[in-house]
Amino acid sequence: MVEKIKREWFSNIRADILAGTVVALALIPEAIAFSIIAGVDPMVGLYASFCIVVIIAFVGGRPGMISAATGAMALVMAPLVREHGLDYLLVATVLTGIIQLLFGIFKVSRFMKFIPRAVMIGFVNALAILIFMAQVPHFIGISNMTYLFVAITLAIVYILPRFFKAIPAPLIAIVVLTSVALYANIDLRSVGDLGAITRSLPEFFIPNVPLTFETLAIVFPFSLALAIVGLLESLLTASIVDDMTDTESDKNREARGQGIANIVTGFFGGMAGCAMIGQSVINVKSGGRGRLSTLTAGALLMFLIIVLGNLVVQIPMPVLVGIMIMVSIGTFDWSSFTYLRKAPKADAIVMLVTVGIVVATNDLSKGVFAGVILSAIFFVAKISKLKVKEHHDNKHLIFKVDGQLFFASTEDFIASFDFSVENEDIIIDFSNARIWDDSAVGAVDKVVMKYREKNNRVTIKDLDTSSQKLLNELAVYNKG
Amino acid sequence: MYKTILLAVDGSENSLRATDEAVKIASLIPDCQIVVVFVADFSKSKNEILHAQGKEELEYARRKKMLPVEEKINSKNINYQLKILRGNPGPTIIEHADQEKADMVVIGSRGLNTLQEMVLGSVSHEVMKNANCPVLIVK
């Protein structure tokens, strides 16, 4: 136990502190921008990021992973904030945490493997598209100066890292361009135009909503969607960090940790969050491996919020838009275009449907549901394809069955026999087939009976053990 | 003579050509060892996880990339070990070459032009500039 704590916290002190610092700096622009996507004061996102990062450092299941306010969660909660306001969001955040905690306790993460990769690819692509679309109202058709600032921001975030890597480029873009805009007195929309910023430490309070069934009815669908989207992104991120660091992580502990983090965050006036792919990659690339890197990021973030509080309201919107465009380009899976050409048609369709439904409904969880259901249907359709080949040898009429015999394939199975024959020795060869359920046994029964009616002798051969067992227990033809 | 040759591969055509050259050199020297290094690139990790159904499939895909390299080395009965490392390819290869006290690094080059090299970055170029031993770049 002590050994484990030592390893997870103190095995990599120097690199962890450095990486945590980089992450804190990189988190600020995103936390502010995601708050704006959610439609809340930037402080809500910054508080949330601080709370979540610090709590996850202690209770998360994947050391070195960074969790905070994220775009995926912001997009899901935006309609709730628009219609019901911040207090309902805080309740939803607490409830999201409770749901995630339960998911963790009941080990729901093992069901993650039922989500096909086509759905996950669709998920990240849809996320990227939504983040981009959320920026459009903030820069299209406002002023030429707006376009110019977006362009300069993009130039800074893409070109600068080639020469200078110590400080994250988005933060440099914010500091430099905010100063330029202030000194040159350039007329641009700023963060302050969208919400007021209070500069203080987060404090505990109970959200001001009536605790009724009606509140629950409003909040629950959002919480469920948030819980699922949050876990999906968190577990995907955990797998990425697992792979990058060649280590294992405890996915159920991570789910419980995400839950605890969101419960606490909700009570401290923050919005729900989850693990961030981009920031976690930055952390690992900068050398962060242990829990200390996550804690450093959180502690420094709080310090920066207090120091930079005044500056945050002055940040011109076009700069944040530029940074979010970078985030969406980074989130999008550009190899999807090759995937569409090379992957099986059914997978490609599942991916497109997932993206399409998310973009149409603005709800990531609906897209995931649709994708999972559609791919399940495709899977059943594929696996239920069953072939029966007929041939004669000198004495027997042989039917060779190829495929899985279960409720979805019984109809095809029966239809592929020719029942006009009489007085034959018939062999049904099951060496390439398997019987799965009682409807399959019923189908075999029916075929055998029908042949017997016309004076044929039927032998069933080469069943595997479990199919044979099912047939012995349930079939009628062999009991007469 | 060369006792340890570090061969950096990524499963591509040019890394197979590099393998041929490493094998030629190694087969001339008695008890020469080839250390084959495959670096799983940090910046590709997200993409690879997303496109793989689970960890086992990804690991299998990586092992499969090393297979033709292994065959080439095996056919000449040369002593070798395989290593899958993680990180930023250039620095990781150099670091590992130091660690193994490699006498030479053999690496393939994609043959990028100046512009591509600026945008994509050349691993072989980076290794050549920063390695602490002779580097053979195979075109």
UniProtKB/TrEMBL annotation, chain A:
Keywords: Membrane, Transmembrane, Transmembrane helix
Protein's cellular compartments: Membrane
Membrane topology classification: Multi-pass membrane protein
Lineage summary: Bacteria, Bacillati, Bacillota, Bacilli, Bacillales
Transmembrane segments: 43-60, 88-106, 118-136, 142-160, 167-186, 216-238, 259-282, 294-312, 319-337, 349-381
Signal sequence annotation: none
Name of the protein in its database record: C4-dicarboxylic acid transporter DauA
A GO molecular-function annotation: secondary active sulfate transmembrane transporter activity
All residue ranges annotated as the STAS domain in the record: 397-480
InterPro entries: Membrane-Transporter-like, S04_transporter_CS, SLC26A/SulP_dom, STAS_dom, STAS_dom_sf
Organism of origin: Jeotgalicoccus meleagridis
One GO CC term, this protein: membrane
Gene: dauA_1
PROSITE patterns found in the cross-reference section: SLC26A, STAS
Pfam family, one: STAS
From TrEMBL, chain B:
Transmembrane portions of the chain: none
SUPFAM superfamilies: Adenine nucleotide alpha hydrolases-like
Domain UspA intervals: 1-139
Family that this chain belongs to: Belongs to the universal stress protein A family.
Protein known as: Stress response protein NhaX
Source organism: Jeotgalicoccus meleagridis
